[in-house]
Amino acid sequence: MHGRKSRSSDTVNQRAISIRIARDPNDLMLVTAIRAAVYLAEQDCPIEEEFDGNDLVAAHFIGFIGAEPAACLRVRFFGEFAKIERLAVRHQFRRSRISFKLVQASFEYIKRKGFKKVYGHAQDRLVNFWAHFGAKPLGGNRKITFSDFSYTEMVLDLEPCADAITLDSDPYVMIRPEGDWDRPGVLDGSSGRGASSPLRTAAVGER
Q1: 203 pLDDT band (50/70/90 cuts)?
Q2: Helix %, strand %, coil % of the chain (to 5)
Q3: What is the pLDDT of residues 97-138, one digit of tens each?
Q4: Is the dihedral of CA 143, 145, 148, 152 positive or negative?
Q5: I want to staple 153 with a disulfide (CB 3.0 to 4.6 A). Which of 45, 118, 141, 142 is the partner?
């Protein structure tokens, strides 16, 4: 999973599955379109409940089959855990393994950020899907109901990640594009210029 844009449709294996993180307004439009097709059109979810005010404070993953955007998933972060939500797969792609690939990519991302626990709400009919990854109901058959569906609270413990990003990590890693930490970014290249700005002694903020 990388954060770079997908290749043009004429060079992509039309059945290949790829995952990337949403990075710009165009990507968020893809996420919006997928979720609208699944939750608004199929599940008749009210628009203000589906687009709940949390989309600009979350990480979004987009799954492609070939060049076609087929699925998406949202991750938000809290003090001790990450929360997976809004997994949506367009109906024509539900026989593929894209949902599994999307969840696996999000887990790798969550582990790299140093989180060891994932929490989520599974529609009751999808509890077995999440159990496939090792998720378990959060004790006492805890339920939650919203947008006309019953959900089961699920929790998953992740194996610690040996290369999780910490305060001891290379500082250039932490300023690279989100989720694409293993390749030098544009700011790595700028380091070769040194502190040459004429404003280097002015208090112009921190980055």
Answers
A1: low
A2: 30, 25, 45
A3: 999 999 999 999 999 999 999 999 999 999 999 999 999 998
A4: negative
A5: 142
How far apart, in whole angstroms, are the C-alpha atoms of residue 92 and residue 98? 11
Beta-strand (E) ranges in the chain?
A: 17-21, 59-65, 68-77, 82-89, 117-123, 136-137, 143-146, 149-157
> Could you give the count of Cα atoms lying within 13 Å of 74 in the half-sphere of its Cβ?
21
CA distance 118 to 96: 24
What is the amino acid identity at position 61? F
In whole angstroms, give the CA distance from residue 133 to residue 100. Answer: 9
Give pLDDT tens digits for 156-170.
999 989 999 999 999
The closest alpha carbon to 103, from 118, 90, 123, belongs to 118
Q: Report residue 131 CA to chain centroid gap.
A: 19
Give the CA angle between residues 2, 65, 181 to the nearest 5°. 5
